[in-house]
Structure formats: C-alpha cells, structure tokens
Design a protein that fits this description.
Layout lengths: L18 E5 L5 H11 L3 E5 L2 H13 L6 E5 L4 H14 L4 E6 L7 H6 L5 E4 L4 H58 L9 H18 L3 E8 L2 H8 L1 H17 L6 E6 L2 E6 L7 H14 L2 E3 L2 E3 L3 E8 L6 H18 L4 E3 L2 H22 L3 E10 L4 E13 L3 E3 L5 H7 L2 H21 L6 E5 L2 H4 L4 H12 L8 E6 H4 L3 H14 L2 E7 L6 H6 L4 E4 L1 H6 L4 H16 L3 E5 L4 H9 L4 E3 L7 E2 H9 L4 H5 L5 H4 L4
C-alpha cells in the first residue's frame, strides 16, 4: 500500500491531543492505518497481545493518563478482547471502543454492540486511508459527545449555582421584607401592633361592620403622668413600665382584639363586635384596674393610673380617621376631669357608663353593709303532694329602691368579679339555713344553689366549699345541697367540666342543669356527666299549651330524663294550663308562682312548719290531673 508523506503543516493540531491504544499487528491493515493516524499527529500505542493492552489500560486507569480511543482487532483473541471491553465499559468508559472485524468474524458482535460494550464496529477490508479516516471520525465524534456532556454538566452546575444564589437572594429579600413589615407594623419596644397596623385594621373593621350592621369600639389608653416616671427614674425604667403595662392590657382582651402602642405612652385597642353599649365600659374598667395594680420597680411599688377615651362606629364617626380623633378627644376629657377614668365620645354612652359605675359602687357598698339576703322558692312534687326542695335566690335590700332582683345587677357582679365573694356568701348562708331548719325540726328537704361561671371555673371551689361546710358543721354527704349550673356553662370546657362535676358529686352534692333545652348541649355528654336533675327552661313552659314545638321539646326532655334516670323539674310554672300540659307529658316536679313565689326565710320556715308545706299544693287550682295524672 502506498503511503503519503506528511509535513508538519499537514498535522492536525487537534489530533495531536489524542492518544490511542491499538491492539493489533503491524503486518495487518490496522497497522497501516496506524501509520496514517500517526502521520496525522495522533499519539498511538501499539500492543501485540491482549495481556499487554490490559496492562496499559490499567496503568492509564491508575494514573493521570488519558486514553481517547482503544482499537481492538477481534481476530487477535476474541475472549480476551471481550474481557478488555467489559473492563473498559465498567471501569474506564472514557475512551471510544472501536472494534475491527472481517465479515466472517461478526458472530456475537451485534450483542456486544447492543450491550454498549462497543462504540463503533468497523469492517475490513478497506483501504488504510479510509480505515484511518473512519477511526479519526469516530474518535472526534466520541470526543465531541464527551465534550457536550461535560458542557451540559457544567451548565447544570452553573444553573445550580445560579438557583442557589437566587434562592439565597429570595430568602434574604423575604427576610428583609419581614424585617421591614415588622418595623412598620409592630412596635419594637413592646411587640404590640404599631399605630399604622391599628389604623389599617380599623379601616377594614369599619368596612366589615358597615356591611353586617355591627358596631366597632376604639379605645385610646393614655398613662397618667408617665413623663414624670421617665424624667425621675430614667428611660430604661420607663421602657420597662411600658412593656409591663402592654402585657397587662393584652391580658384584658380577647385574641381577636387588636392592642397597639399608638405612640409614646398611649395604647390603642380595637374591639370589632361591641354590640351592647355597656360592653366597652366593662372592658375599660378592667383595663383601669389592671393598670392600677402596683408595679415592682427596683424593689419599690410604682403606682400608675390611666385615662381612656372610647369612640364607637357608627354612632360617633363613619371613618377611621374621625373615629381616632374622637377617641383622642374623649381621652383628653378623661385626663382633664379627674384621670383614672374612661370617657365615651358620645354623651349617651357616658350616661350609661356613669350609671354602670354608680351601680358598681353601690354593689361594693351593699356587700360591705350586708344588704343582700336569700329568698327561698319551694319545689313541689304533685305525686307526694309535698314540698321536696327549694332554691336559694339572691335579693338586694336596696336602702332607697327596696328589694331588687338579680336581673338588674348580676351582669355587673360578673364583670367586676364581685360575684366571687358574694357567691361564696350565698353558699355559706344556704348551708347555715339547712342547719337552722334541721334544728327547728323542719322536714329534711334539698336546697339548690346557683353557681356562677366564675365560681365554677375556680379550681379552689371544692376546697372552699368543704371549708365552709366544716365551719357550719354541715355534713355534705347527707346530699341535702344541690348545685345548679346553666346548660351553656356545661359545654364550655368538656374535660374540665367533667372533672369538676365528678369532684363535687363525690363530695355529696346533687347536680342540676338549669335552663335546659336552650340548644347548647350535645346529648351524648349528658351520659358521661354525673348529673341528677334537668330543669326545663321557662321559655318552653311559657308556651307549652300554645306552641306545638315547645310542647314537643318538653316531651323530648321528659323522655330523655327518664331514659337517663334523671329527675326533670319544670320551673316558671304560673298557670293551671301550663301545669296540666306539663303533667300530661309526665312531668311531676314543679317550681313557679302557681305554687309559691320566692319568700324570705321566716315566711319559708312558717310555710314548712305547716305540715311540711303541703298547703301550697292543696291551694293550687283544683284539677283532676293534679291529683291523679293517670286517670
């Protein structure tokens, strides 16, 4: 075969970077092709045996040497060629694997191609130049593919770096945005909402309230003489005072309300559902009491007061800015008049607040002067024709207005917390009454006492009741005392309620659910609560003989009571028609004006002394159902 002589200018500068390993003999066609490749500038390592080629490959694998192609002549040794191909495929896939074979040597090579052990299969015979060209094209194509893969990997790596950088940038932007939002909408010192956030929420609250015809109350709470604290004790102490006061105000409100530091020593408060005109006054009073509790500063008591201005949407203003301005005006009026008080912007609300404050002062005086007393309303059983119990009912012997019922003052007692000491007084007086009646040989009846929400949620309730019983020497296990709680109170906290009722029941109390049927209870809870009585709400009794729905509800309550082995009591029975209707549905115990109104203890004792109160049953309107419902 003829050979071409190449000059240095003919050498391919790219080809000079490639290094080839050839397994073949110089006398074959591949040997001639090798010379052509060398003439083109390839670095070629020729090995005559598979063992030497294997050694060369392994040395390249172990070192930094890079092979760009391995040319294998299948005629050398097929089995060793296959092993070399497997070695390259598994451990050194970098070089192109080119196999040269004659047509009669193709058996089995197609399978090696399919398995990926061979990159290119070249057929002999062909000219040395053509074979060299095919080998060169294969090597360059293989290197181009590898380069493309490397470029793709580099692009992927760069993209990952860009994505990571973008992610980090997004995170930093988000953190900065959150810092900015916090700086704008929250007070750095107290952590409360800022004035900007209060104004924003106020605007939204007004729009929502306008759609739903609701009221919104806005408070501005200004600390009195706070500048004196800053000037005399220093800013650090002043900051601590502001933090402490902010916590106290926050504890006075619900989570749905917004408390803000409006500026300096002024706090803002947004209440979005101020439906009753007296509600803002109750809340303002709580805040004033909370602020007035002495602060411990450097071992000394620091006394503070506040002045509160209140404006109401929509009566005082129809926009956020005017509502704020009016609240500020009311706050300034409170400061100018006497401090340590609250003022409504509206004169009407101020009158209501004034009456409420006056009532609270009267109640405090009434407790101190013991102006309260208990009345007792009998409970009768028509089957036995006897008085079987009574209910203790609170009355206020007002020095100017006479006897007042709880409906006129109970809410103020609850709001101010005065219900707590008064409630324990009712328990103590009721226990003492039972002891007095027993000493007078009156029939042993049960006496029911109503528990307020504050009392029932007092964890010390069982211990305080036991202490009272010990003081008056009443044996609770005689089960002569009943405790009444409302149906709504029963459902406030199922777990705590069950635990408290169980404790009271174990102490010897009978438990009654008052106002039953108003829609709060889930019937499955009645099975698990330790209950004894259900008292049908008066609203159903009032309509039982005129309204089929009320009658159906009462019938269901009576049936339910019998199924759960509970006594059912109808309260508020005032007419013969109500009594007949209730008896026809199976009700046997009653309480109401038809039999007796609540009466002072002396009158109740006189009644019970007359044949155990049988007279009030006998005096009831004559009716066959009253005497014998079964006829």
């Amino acid at each position: 075969m003829s050979q071409r002589n190449y000059s240095k200018s003919d050498l391919n500068p790219v080809a000079q970077q490639f290094e080839l390993l050839v397994l073949g003999s110089e006398g074959t066609q591949i040997g001639l092709a090798v010379k052509t490749l060398e003439a083109h500038g390839y670095h070629v390592q020729c090995e005559a045996s598979a063992a030497k080629a294997d050694k060369f490959i392994r040395a390249a694998m172990a070192g930094s040497r890079t092979l760009h192609a391995v040319l294998l002549e299948i005629a050398i040794d097929r089995s060793q060629i296959v092993e070399l191909l497997k070695l390259l495929h598994q451990h050194y896939p970098r070089p192109a694997r080119i196999v040269l074979a004659r047509p009669d040597e193709l058996q089995g090579l197609e399978e090696l191609l399919n398995d990926g052990l061979i990159d290119k299969l070249l057929l002999q015979p062909c000219s040395d130049k053509k074979l060299a060209q095919l080998i060169e094209d294969t090597v360059r194509l293989h290197e181009a593919v590898l380069l493309n893969v490397e470029l793709i990997k580099k692009v992927d790596d760069l993209q990952k770096e860009v994505d990571a950088a973008n992610s980090n940038l997004d995170k930093r932007v988000k953190e900065k945005a959150e810092e900015l939002i916090k700086l704008i909408y929250y007070d750095e010192l107290t952590g409360l909402a800022s004035s900007a956030l209060l104004k924003d929420r106020l605007s939204h609250a007004i729009k929502s309230a306008a759609r739903d015809s609701r009221k919104v109350a806005l408070f501005l709470v200004g600390l009195d003489r706070f500048k004196y604290i800053n000037d005399s004790l220093g800013q650090d102490i002043g900051d601590q005072v502001l933090r402490d006061i902010s916590e106290r105000i926050s504890k006075c409100v619900r989570s749905s309300d917004t408390v803000s530091r409006f500026g300096g020593d002024v706090f803002g408060l947004l209440v979005t559902d101020a439906e009753r005109v007296e509600d803002p006054g109750f809340l303002a009073h709580r805040i004033l009491e909370a602020v007035a509790v002495p602060l411990k500063i450097q071992g000394q008591d620091l006394f503070l007061t506040a002045s509160i201005g209140i404006s109401i949407f929509p009566s005082d203003a129809d926009g956020a800015n005017l509502l704020l301005a009016n609240a500020e005006t009311a706050m300034r009026q409170a400061k100018l008049q006497a401090r340590n008080q609250f003022r409504y912007y509206s004169g009407e609300f101020n009158q209501i607040a004034s009456r409420r404050l006056s009532l609270e002062a009267e109640l405090r005086r009434a407790i101190n002067k013991k102006e309260f007393e208990l009345y007792y309303q009998p409970r009768v059983d028509v089957s036995s024709q006897c008085v079987i119990g009574a209910e203790s009912l609170l009355r206020w012997q007002h020095p100017d207005r006479g006897i007042l019922l709880p409906g006129g003052f109970l809410s103020v007692l609850e709001e101010t917390g005065l219900i707590q000491p008064l409630g324990y007084w009712v328990l103590e007086e009721s226990m003492q009454a039972l002891q007095r009646w027993q000493a007078q040989s009156l029939p042993l009846i049960r006496l029911a006492v109503n528990l307020s929400a504050r009392q029932f949620h007092d964890r010390q309730l069982p211990d305080r009741i036991q202490q009272i019983a010990d003081n008056v020497k009443l044996d609770l296990m005689q089960q002569r005392l009943e405790l009444e709680i409302t149906e709504s109170l029963l459902m406030e906290d199922i777990t705590s309620t069950r635990a408290m009722l169980q404790r009271l029941h174990e102490m010897g109390f009978k438990i009654a659910i008052d106002d039953f049927g108003t829609g709060y209870s889930a019937l499955n809870y009645l099975i698990t609560f330790p209950l004894d009585h259900l008292k049908i709400d008066k609203s159903f009794v009032d309509k039982i003989h005129t309204n089929d729905d009320a009658k159906a509800i009462v019938e269901a309550i009576v049936s339910l009571s019998y199924s759960l082995h509970l006594n059912v009591i109808a309260e508020g029975v005032e007419t013969r028609e109500q009594l007949i209707a209730l008896q026809s549905l199976g009700c046997k115990q009653f309480q109401g004006y038809l039999f007796a109104k609540p009466m002072p203890e002396q009158q109740f004792v006189s009644l019970m002394s007359d044949r155990g109160g049988a007279s009030i049953v006998e005096m009831a309107p004559e009716d066959r159902l009253l005497r014998d419902p079964g006829r």
